Amino acid sequence: MPSFIVETSARHIHLTEQAVATLYGAGATLEVKKMLSQPGQFACANEKIRLIGPKGELAVSVLGPVRKANQVELSFSDARALGLKGVPVRESGDVAGTPGLKLVGPAGELEISEGCIIAKRHIHMTPADAAEFGVSNGQVVSVKVDNGQGRALVFGDVVVRVSDKFALAMHIDTDECNAAAAFGDVRGEIV
């Protein structure tokens, strides 16, 4: 069975154009620090944004480009550290009815009423990749991750996301990475 890279997606935020202006100042744009594995996606060179929750705060990286809705992606540990309750596991973009919090940037603050999720683990695939693996968009699979550290793990409930705009990679959060000791060059395979 073919395998794919497994990447850890640490806590981060996606911002709208309006949020960028509020947090960084009028006329500000998101500047590329480094490109990410998914085509067109990048980590920003701008300062990190501080998330302020009921019990704590965390700094997060901003990922670009701008989005239609603000979205904060956390792990369960991050949500607990912030004091957020009821943060759901969701696919990216599905933020309706989720908890919000305060965002603090170098030029301003913004209170968002919703937008905090724990990203559902997923595999990005092109249509050709999906055909090779025998899966389809939206299919839920299990993936074995083993980097030889004695912490092999099978992740269930992994959503397959197919688009010709994607590059083949699985994304897990930092809690999941730690559980599987998925550090460095890690591969996964559908089981």
Overview in brief:
This protein has helices at 17-24, 76-82, 127-133, 174-180, and strands at residues 4-8, 12-14, 32-35, 42-44, 49-52, 57-64, 71-74, 89-90, 101-104, 109-112, 116-119, 122-125, 140-145, 153-162, 169-172, 187-190. By secondary structure, it is α/β, with parallel strands linked by helices. It starts with a strand and ends with a strand.
Overview of the molecule:
There is one protein chain. It is built from four helices and 16 strands. By secondary structure, it is of the alpha/beta class. The chain folds into two domains: 11-119, no CATH class; 121-190, Barwin-like endoglucanases (Beta Barrel). The strands form two sheets. Strands 2, 3, 4, 5, 6, 7, 8, 9, 10 and 11 form a ten-stranded mixed beta sheet that branches. A hairpin with a 4-residue loop joins strand 9 and strand 10 (109-112). It is globular and about 50 Å long. The N and C termini lie close together (9 Å).
The biggest beta sheet is recorded as: 10 strands, mixed
State the separation between the terminal residues, measured CA to CA.
9 Å
Order of helices and strands: EEHEEEEEHEEEEEHEEEHE
Low-confidence stretches: none
User: Count of DSSP E strands?
Assistant: 16
Gyration radius (Cα, Å) is 17 Å
What is the strand content? 35-45%
The helix/strand class is alpha/beta
Number of helices: 4
Morphology call: globular
Average of pLDDT: 96
Helix coverage percent:
10-25%
Number of self-contained structural domains: 2
